[in-house]
Amino acid sequence: MLDSKLTKIKTLIEQKEKIDTQLAELIGETEKPKRGRPAKKDEPAAATIEE
Length: 51
Hints:
Elements: H1 2-27
């Protein structure tokens, strides 16, 4: 019983955070995050074999 209550609480908190974020975007408090996959950071170039 306690586990089910904790799970429900966790779900409600997650929903509240999503709603708060959406409301902030609509009101203009925050910028809308970019959609899609985040850009890759510059990775070190692969080592080349010098002859």
